[in-house]
What we know:
It contains four helices and four strands, in the order ββαββααα. It is of the alpha+beta class and 128 residues long. The protein has a domain at 9-66. The strands form two sheets. A two-stranded antiparallel ribbon has the order 1-2. Strands 3-4 form a two-stranded antiparallel sheet. The N and C termini lie far apart (99 Å). The mean pLDDT is 79.
Amino acid sequence: MVARAPRKRMYKSMQGRMIDIEKLRSANESVQAVGNMNVNARGDVIGAGGKVVTPKETIIKKYYEQPKGMVSDTPVSKPMPAPRREPPKQVAKPSAVASKTAPKKTAPKPKTETKSKKGIDAALDGLE
């Protein structure tokens, strides 16, 4: 049997044009990606002026050094102190005398004579 050549990923656009996605990706590999992560389309971290600060290979290597969920053998530098529990506070029950408080009396506001103003006079009244 003869091995087949790898199949190219060709897509048809809405306008009917054939587009090779792999060729498009490789052509724009060094262009800065859209977003706020400061990476190029390949995944390299980009610094000032578009220069590669950290290549993609080191980022992936660092990610897979210690898989998620794996416990580290080194102990934590400082153990967390146990939270202090305070005894519950005792609340005094309200007595019958304390619950019957007299309603507060407020002084009545003095009435001022005001003419009923209309239109602009009413709107400009508080601005003086």
